[in-house]
Amino acid sequence: MVDREPVPAREPEWSDDELPTRGRDGGGSAASQSDGLQVFDGPGHDVVDRPPRSRRLGVVTFVLATVLLALDGLALGLLAADAVSPAAVLALVTLLASIVVGVVGLMAVVMRRGRWWGVAAVVLSSLSNPFVLVWLIGRFVSTV
Fold first, then answer.
1. C-alpha span between 76 and 67 (Å, rounded)
2. How distant, in Å, are the alpha carbons of 20, 73, 87, 126 from that of 68?
3. pTM exceeds 0.85 for this model
4. What is the mean pLDDT of residues 123-134?
């Protein structure tokens, strides 16, 4: 067995009458023409037509957080009027609901479905938590 060096392939030899009809790419068509491949001729893959996202989730959570803040104020009013039992029930409802609304508000922020409404809903749901609200009232309201 004889070891030989590989011989490079030769370029095809064109006759004089074939040269003008052949393009620069050697395929029989001009290099500037489209070769019919729609994959690479169109816009790039970065261009995406997405429909605008709905802000409804963020707005709904903001409205629910506002309602919870009003219910928490009502519970404080009932507590001031010595109606402890209904005030405790409203405080418990607002405590649990504020956690749920806060989590859904965070989901609205992450999913970009009413991002700023979701941020406002998270802030309001934190304020509507009865423990936070009582702490803030005790901290900033002076005792006379």
1. 14
2. 82, 9, 13, 10
3. no
4. 88
Is the pLDDT higher at 72 or at 12?
72
Which element (helix H / strand E) includes 125? helix 115-127
- Model confidence at 40, pLDDT cuts 50, 70, 90, reads low
Q: Report in angstroms the alpha-carbon separations of 141 from 130, 132, 136, 137, 144.
A: 16, 14, 8, 5, 9
User: 65: closest CA among 30, 27, 108, 29?
Assistant: 108
The two three-digit tokens of residue 135, written as one number: 């702490």
Cα dihedral 105, 109, 110, 111, rounded to 10, equals 90
Look at the block and give the residue holding tokens 């404080």.
76
Tell me which residue of 121, 116, 122, 120 sits closest to 55, measured CA to CA: 116
